[in-house]
């Protein structure tokens, strides 16, 4: 089978720091190649992959202010679709834009929906010629028919297990009201624990008004956006990860990464969290600051080895690759 993976180009694949869509696409590309699949990855040309690499964008547009993402994504999609006759299947990880031109594709398309940025993009899905995969049951919408749900997988070996927890809590993700960064600060304060914040600032005003005044290098530390090697060390050293999201999150890679390090999660029970977190084993599902503080006290007593084993069983990259191969076989019949 010859598969084209149409990846995003906001960041490198795999990303240097932030870039969840790029991370998953890169892991899938490498996993498929290791299974003997002929894979071409369409991504930024500085990407690192076991697959054949093709594309038109030399570097991520988020890292170069001279690049207009709208223009380069359009050029990227046009280049990939122009080669579509060379493949048995196109696997789209680039949101709605390729779907607008799906009638021009000369191979079947599967689209993994990494979340809906707005209801306004739904018409592109409804009018497309594509099969759809959701990344959680919670992220499905009634207007679409889905071929499968495939939870993201991660490279388990890249996230070492830590049997010993530190004292601090950690919060990973975009610094944005959706991610509840200010709530994480309050949870840590009331739990009597220091907090480590990691992630890119996506709302400058929110950071300046609700987050930065609390960053003192002691009770609250902000490390910025951290790379793959640092993530494992930071997550593994934490007592637990707090994830007080204010939106229906489609998946939550940092939650899985934390569990793989043996660090349980205290997460608001929104979106996919009830699917991802095994309450009482890998974390605690909560609903507000009060219950999150109680959840921290509960989660820090969990068996970290059991947390790791459960996450390995449920969220390995190998499991993800297996499930996507099943999807490909169904589409290619």
How would you describe the overall organization of this protein?
The model has no long low-confidence stretch (mean pLDDT 96). By secondary structure, this protein is of the alpha/beta class. It is 35% helix and 15% strand. The chain has helices at 20-34, 69-82, 97-100, 122-126, 181-191, 204-211, 228-236, 253-260, 273-276, 289-299, 304-315, 317-332; strands at 2-6, 38-42, 52-54, 89-92, 109-113, 131-134, 148-149, 169-172, 195-198, 220-222, 240-243, 265-268, 283-286. It is built from 12 helices and 13 strands.
Arrangement of strands in the largest sheet: 3-2-1-4-5-6-7
Uncertain runs are none
Instruction: List SSEs in N-to-C order.
Output: EHEEHEHEHEEEHEHEHEHEHEHHH
Shape: globular
Cα distance spanning the termini: 12 Å
Q: What's the β-strand tally?
A: 13
Structural class: alpha/beta
Task: Give the mean pLDDT.
Answer: 96
